[in-house]
Specification:
This protein is of the alpha+beta class. The protein has four domains: about 140 residues, Aspartate Aminotransferase, domain 1 (Alpha-Beta Complex), CATH 3.90.1150; about 210 residues, Aspartate Aminotransferase, domain 2, CATH 3.40.640; about 190 residues, Gcn5-related N-acetyltransferase (GNAT) (Aminopeptidase, 3-Layer(aba) Sandwich), CATH 3.40.630.30; about 170 residues, Aminopeptidase (3-Layer(aba) Sandwich), CATH 3.40.630.30. It is built from 28 helices and 27 strands. Strands 15, 16, 17, 18, 19, 20, 21, 22, 23, 24, 25, 26 and 27 form a 13-stranded mixed β-sheet that branches. The protein is globular. It starts with 8 loop residues before the first helix and ends with a helix. This is Aminotransferase class I/II-fold pyridoxal phosphate-dependent enzyme. Pfam families: Aminotran_1_2. GO terms for molecular function: transaminase activity.
Length: about 800
């Protein structure tokens, strides 16, 4: 498999959001001339509001509204001065109130995003290290990335994985001054908690461990004086904890607050904190409203408000407990998440609930993995019990209908979230289809396979026999691949869809930038399987081309396509794969919409290159039909080296040559960090040498036939297509003899000599191949991961190395 281009995160987010917008569930506008918090108007319809983050409903409290209006009357709509020079007259009272709430020194910030940007670079020294929980809020991750410019290492662990955290601590405990672990107190999607007490116990074991908690979703509705979940767990704020709360969301106003009990760190942040120094201060209305809210927090009333919310949360939990809805995390926070699995099911479910009169939020990538799409429901004091019960009843009614509309079932949803299904479901595939799953190519009809699948690459019937032999029975686990052959037929035994899939071990950074892979390879010197995962893929890492036959015109074509996707979901669970990859699709593939709806992300692969040799009988004729620019390239960069080299085609190599072939391929493989794969097994070369379909084009210096410069390993498939599958080269002599360009030329020359009409040149080095007349075509792969950890970890590592 050739190098896949670096994944453009923003383009992927744009495509996912565009899909959701077109489905009518994202980027909506509220209507109406007023807003109560209990209902919200969408598209002219009044809906019960289950999407707020104002859990206590204080944003509608008359005291906050009056204070905001009064502040505007007295001080205007804004106070246009940097707070570093002079603060709004109301600021002192606000700071005094918030300080009394926390009983600690505090810093007020414009919002939490700017607060993180100001605090993290100030608090973290150059000799520190940052470890991020991979579900910590984007604003924390984004602020942490700023420290890459100061060469501060940034690591990431899987969500709430204390074992992984301790491994990272051990890695840095003797080399770094402070080890900062950054996490949310309450996570905004699933409503689950940080294990605060367990983390503090870990800091007793490792004194360098410091914590940075973003507890904006834990604010106000829990804790003494409404200071949040984290402080409730801590009791007192220790000096190794920086705690962020909010003055917006549940607090009802605007802004954010940092609490810090370490005098030196506090002074450092307060004196100069980037955006804290240069950004505009809170508007008078926000300060006035925040003071009014702080006074409520400082009074016994806050506990009455918390209790009212608690009763609603408990009631919602009780209602849910009688259903079979997939609640992803059961807890006592006001945030609930009902999984739908596939995005298209989420769109359908949200639209159904809105038509029924209930507004809820869609949880979608990048906040959650694409295949973990779902509905985020938030409970507030605005919600009445009859409305809560009505929402649960509506969900219970419409959830199975949304699944049915999108050709899925509860079992698939529970599988996507690694939960045990409450009920077993029947497959959605029509009974008119016959699905065959075969364990070896020897069980497949050879003529049928070659008719539908034998036209490209090294995956005709004979090629797959070769691959099965080479990638089984090896000592290393990365060299043993599991093959499965899928044939979906109609009732007349006519194939509608045919493909093969493999399960194999991939390096998690295979698709990452080369410098990231170089850093990971340094760690793999001690642990060869560091950050590796089992991957289920169409085709295999050895093959390129259209790995899928599909008769889209067949009346059951859509059902066959859905059947394959459901089957691959089951295989992923059965084999314990961490990622599913569907490869080598064209840019305008009719599968695109379906695959997005099923939770796949699209990434662009390098262009696929082919050469059509029909009607051409000599190399001279071939060069003549090239463009004038490409002929100049031939005369300048290839032809001058003819007097220095000679080539020979070998179908049966001797033992010395085989060893050299292995060595030269190893040189290419270890340098190709842009596609960081495991090496091939040694026996591959012996099997190639014994297989009549393989031959090697060997390049040597003239007069030195035993000195090998490079070798192209070529396969001739059932359809008389010549496939230069991979290459080996001596890098010490690469430029002296223009080895790679010479091998490309000799490959075309060889295909003409044996009268083959086409060359499948694959995807690597397409620039060089196009200069020799190859035609390029865009190709795409679709990835579906169990979680976002690898994508986010690689994103964090970019620019560090």
């Amino acid at each position: 498999m050739a190098k896949i281009k670096h994944h453009n995160f923003l383009n992927t987010v744009h495509e996912v959001f565009t899909d959701a917008k077109q489905a009518g569930v994202l980027h909506l506008y509220a209507g109406g001339e007023s807003f109560s918090g209990r209902t919200i108007e969408v598209s002219g319809k009044e809906l019960y509001h289950f999407g707020t983050t104002g859990y206590l409903g204080l944003e509608q409290d008359s005291r906050l509204k009056t204070a905001a209006i009064d502040a505007i009357e007295k001080y205007g709509t804004q106070f246009p001065l940097s707070k570093s020079y002079i603060s709004n007259p109301l600021y002192r009272e606000l700071e005094d109130c918030i300080r009394e709430m926390y009983d600690q020194p505090i810093v007020i910030t414009k919002n939490s995003t700017l607060g993180h940007l100001g605090v993290i670079p100030s608090a973290v020294d150059d000799n520190d290290v940052i470890i991020l929980d991979h579900q910590v809020h984007w604003s924390v991750q984004n602020a942490a990335k700023m420290l890459k410019t100061r060469s501060v290492p940034i690591e990431m662990i899987r969500h709430n994985n204390l074992e992984m955290l301790e491994d990272k601590i051990k890695k840095y405990q003797h080399s770094k001054r402070h080890i900062w672990y950054m996490a949310d107190g309450i996570y905004s999607m699933y409503g689950d908690y940080a294990p605060v007490k367990e983390l503090m116990a870990l800091s007793q074991k490792y004194p360098q461990l410091h914590f940075y908690f973003d507890d904006v979703h834990g604010m106000s509705w829990v804790g003494k004086r409404g200071t949040g979940y984290v402080l409730e767990q801590l009791g007192d704020l220790p000096e190794n904890v920086l705690l962020f709360g909010t003055l917006s969301k549940t607090f009802g106003a605007s802004g954010a607050v940092l609490a810090c009990s370490n005098p030196k760190v506090y002074d450092k942040i307060k004196t100069f904190g980037g955006p804290l120094t240069f950004s505009a201060q809170l508007e008078p209305a926000s300060v006035g409203a925040a003071i009014a809210s702080a006074k409520i927090h400082l009074s016994p009333e806050i506990y009455d408000l918390q209790q009212e919310l608690r009763e609603r949360i408990d009631y919602f939990n009780a209602c849910l407990s009688t259903t079979e809805l997939p609640l992803i995390d059961q807890n006592e926070s006001p945030v609930f998440y009902i999984g739908t699995g596939m995005p298209k099911t989420g769109y359908n479910f949200v639209n159904r609930l809105m038509r029924e009169g209930y507004y809820v939020n869609l949880g979608i990538f990048p906040a959650v993995p694409v295949k973990n799409t779902g509905v985020r429901i938030t409970i507030s004091r605005h919600n009445q019990k009859n409305e809560i019960k009505g929402l649960v009843e509506a969900m219970e009614h419409h959830f199975p209908l949304a699944l049915e509309d999108t050709q899925t079932n509860p079992e698939r949803v529970f599988h996507a979230f690694k939960l045990e299904p409450k009920v077993q479901s029947e497959p959605q595939v029509t009974t008119e289809l016959e699905i065959e799953i075969l364990n070896t190519i020897d069980q497949v009809d050879d003529k049928q396979w070659n008719r539908y699948m034998g036209g490209q690459g090294v995956y005709d019937y004979e090629g797959l026999q070769f691959l099965e032999e080479a990638f089984q029975g090896n000592a290393c686990k990365e060299h043993n691949w599991l093959f499965r052959y899928v044939i979906i037929k109609d009732s007349n035994d006519t194939p509608i869809l045919m493909t093969f899939v493999t399960l194999s071990l991939w390096k998690d950074d295979m698709l990452a930038q080369a410098e990231i892979s170089a850093a990971m390879e340094r760690e793999r010197k001690e642990n060869p399987y560091h950050l590796t995962s089992m991957v289920l893929s169409l085709g295999c890492l050895f093959t390129e081309g259209d790995h899928l036959y599909w008769d889209k015109s067949h009346e059951l074509g859509g059902a066959a396509r859905d059947g394959l996707l459901e089957l691959m979901e089951k295989m992923e669970g059965q084999f314990g794969a961490k990622m599913t990859v569907l490869r080598d699709f064209e840019a305008e593939s009719t599968w695109n919409e379906t695959l997005y709806g099923h939770g796949f992300l699209r990434v662009q692969m390098p262009n696929s290159c082919t050469i059509d040799l029909k009607g051409i009988d000599t190399m001279e004729n071939y060069i003549e039909q090239l463009s004038s620019r490409n002929r100049r390239h031939f005369r300048k960069d290839i032809q001058p080296f003819f007097d220095l080299t000679q080539s020979k085609t070998i179908s049966k190599a001797n033992a010395f040559q085989i060893q050299e072939f292995k060595r030269f391929f190893g040189e290419v493989q270890k340098r190709n960090l842009g596609l960081n794969t495991f090496s091939f097994p040694d026996q591959l070369f012996e099997h190639m040498n014994d297989n009549e379909h393989w031959e090697s084009i060997v390049l040597t210096p003239k007069g030195k036939p035993k000195t090998i410069l490079g070798v192209m390993f070529c396969y001739t498939n059932h359809s008389a297509v010549y496939v230069p599958a991979f290459v080996g080269m001596d890098y010490g002599l690469l430029e002296t003899y223009a080895t790679y360009r010479q091998l490309l030329y000799r490959t075309i020359e060889r295909a003409l000599a044996i009268k083959l009409p086409k060359i499948d040149f694959g995807m690597t080095a397409s620039f060089e191949k196009r200069k020799l007349g190859a035609t390029a075509q865009q190709k795409y792969a679709y990835l579906q991961t169990n979680d976002n950890f690898i994508l986010e970890m690689i994103g964090i590592m970019e620019g560090q190395h």
